[in-house]
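Researcher: I'd like a candidate sequence for this fold, 220 residues long. If you have to choose between options at a position, lean toward the conservative one.
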């Protein structure tokens, strides 16, 4: 076989490989977007809206979030540490009746501290912390965003009404429960979720009945 024929064959093989690679990348595109949508859920829709419907730009943003924070390893809470956070959240809920704004501000601070304690970026870097949380708790992070927004809206003089404060704190509770819920490997047990040592997970979470019906909260 002549040298010319060999070179021609090499060129043909190279072209075929390049074409196959391009087709593979195109085929991966929709699946990549689909996997981001499944992973981020409501955060995917928010990202698309923020980019004025440009799904490609939204997916690039979300993929960058995963690149930066996807490998983050969270730190489990010690049982006593978890109990302290739960006690503080319960106190904030009870405080809402008389001082809704102060209660929501406490919930905002508490989520920032709790996320930091679990190994997420420090609460002093709110945007970075929120971004990391969105990668690992995409279905719950909007509540944190709402209490933070409500807290700072009050500082800026354009505060949210009581109903908005109530809704934001109720939604934020989902993230609080996700962050205080023991993981499969916490405590080195048999993989079942437990709260404090030997107690079921429900014991490590605030009471599921949070009623505002006792009396109307004061506007502050």
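Model: Candidate sequence:
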């Amino acid at each position: 076989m002549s040298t010319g024929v060999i070179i021609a064959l090499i060129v043909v093989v190279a072209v075929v490989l390049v074409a196959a690679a391009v087709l593979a990348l195109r085929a991966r595109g929709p699946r990549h977007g689909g996997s981001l949508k499944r992973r981020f859920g409501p955060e995917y829709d928010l990202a698309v809206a923020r980019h004025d419907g440009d799904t490609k730009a939204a997916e690039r943003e979300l993929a960058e979030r995963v690149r930066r924070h996807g490998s983050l390893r969270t730190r489990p809470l010690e049982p006593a540490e978890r109990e302290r956070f739960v006690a503080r959240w319960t106190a904030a809920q009870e405080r809402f009746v008389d001082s809704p704004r102060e209660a929501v501000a406490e919930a905002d601070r508490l989520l920032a501290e709790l996320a930091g304690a679990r190994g997420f970026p420090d609460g002093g870097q709110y945007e970075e912390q929120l971004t990391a949380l969105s990668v690992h708790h995409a279905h719950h992070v909007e509540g944190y965003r709402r209490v933070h927004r409500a807290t700072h809206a009050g500082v800026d003089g354009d505060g949210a009404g009581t109903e908005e404060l109530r809704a934001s704190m109720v939604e934020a509770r989902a993230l609080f429960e996700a962050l205080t819920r023991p993981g499969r490997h916490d405590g080195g047990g048999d993989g079942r979720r437990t709260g404090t040592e030997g107690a079921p997970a429900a014991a490590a979470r605030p009471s599921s009945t949070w009623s505002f019906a006792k009396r109307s909260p004061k506007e502050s």
